[in-house]
Amino acid sequence: MSESVNLVFITTSEFKEDCLKEYAQEWKATIKRTTNAYQRLFWSINGLSIILYENKLVVQGRLNEFTKRFIKGLRNIKGLTLDSKNLEKFMRIFPVKQNSVVCSTCGEDSLLIKGYIEGLDIVFGMECSHKTDLVAPFLTLSNRILPDVNMLISKSVSRLINLGCLKGVEIVFPEFILDVIDTFKASPRKKAVSDELSTLRRIEEKGLIKINTFSSIPIHLDAKPPMDEDRIILDFAHFTNSILLTGDEVFKDRAIMSGRPTIFVSPEDYVKLKMLEETRT
Questions:
Q1: Which of 110, 117, 185, 261 could form a disulfide with 127 if both were Cys (CB 3.0 to 4.6 A apart)?
Q2: DSSP code of residue 36
Q3: Distance, CA of 158 to CA of 198 (rounded, Å)
Q4: pLDDT digits over 140-149, tens only?
Q5: Are 124 and 114 in contact (CB under 8 A)?
Q6: How big is the chain by its Cα radius of gyration, in Å?
Q7: Domain 4-95 of CATH type 3.30.310.10
Q8: Which residues of the chain are in CATH 3.40.50.1010 domains?
Q9: What is the location of CATH 3.30.310.10 in the chain?
Q10: For the segment 9-33, what is each residue's pLDDT rounded down to a tens digit?
Q11: Which is more confidently placed, 254 or 178?
């Protein structure tokens, strides 16, 4: 028995009929006569019906490799969105790589989300070139974010939240991070992380995030150098299925190579983040 589909896309104010017409023409879809007064446009392609109504686009019919590619491309048309029920249907048709982060605009998955300063804002780009505001859900198996030590020392985690990013996520702050900090001789680093944890706890009290220390998981660190801090954090990210948050190029590459979703913010932007926070809050 062949697979079938019944998807309903919602049209927003950004939607333009001409874009849909051009897309249907590119795929050589056949124009059909509408069957009632509520239908605006009607096409068929390889056993698939595409019907445009006033505020929605209904796609129903046979699923095969050809029609799957056509449906997947509809996500790239500006102004076509899916509600949670239809997004679940879409995700069943187009399963993603394990632990990847899914773009809510086009449905493509990314292992790397790269942050950069644009004007007076911090912007995050997916591998598909679309932007994300880092507001949960990310459409992964969890919404856990595990920042590395440098992100905590720079206090960039709380600044991102204060700038409107990462709301609704679970910040992983394992107790072994404090053990890592204790191996540093420079006390300002310890104080910076302690201050950041206090700030994150205040943010948690407002209900904007959750903090999970995973205190029930015993992890013993060898305080004698060399201690591979990145390896421990990466292993913990795999174990807890967390998205890494880092400003370390080498660590970012290592994480991506091991298949771990990663959010990258350049250390050059740490100071800019502080300035943005002071300007906007």
A1: 110
A2: S
A3: 10
A4: 546 789 999 8
A5: yes
A6: 23
A7: yes
A8: 109-280
A9: 4-95
A10: 999 888 999 999 999 999 999 999 9
A11: 254
Residues 6+ apart with CB under 8 A from 75: 82, 90, 105, 106, 107
Take residue 250 and report the two structure tokens written for it.
């080498």
Distance (Å, whole) CA 268 – CA 116: 9
3-state secondary structure of 126: coil
Helix 249-257 / helix 229-240 crossing angle, nearest 10 deg? 40
Per-residue pLDDT tens over the stretch 64-96? 989 998 998 887 788 888 886 787 788 678 754
CA dist 200 and 213 (Å) reads 12
- Of residues 109 and 243, more confidently modeled: 243
State the DSSP H helix or E strand holding residue 57, giving kind and residue range, or none if neither: strand 56-62
* Backbone dihedral angles phi then psi of residue 68, each to the nearest 5 degrees: -65, -45
Mean pLDDT in residue range 210-232: 63
Residue 162: HSE in the Cβ half-sphere, 13 Å Cα cutoff: 19
Q: What is the pLDDT of residue 193?
A: 86
- In 3-state terms, what secondary structure has residue 279? helix
What interhelical angle do 65-74 and 84-93 show, nearest 10?
140
Pick the CATH number of 109-280 from 3.30.450.30, 3.40.50.1010, 3.40.50.2300, 2.40.50.1020: 3.40.50.1010
Note the pTM of the prediction, 2 decimals: 0.54
Alpha helices, DSSP H only, in the chain? Answer: 17-26, 65-74, 84-93, 149-153, 156-162, 176-182, 187-205, 229-240, 249-257, 270-280
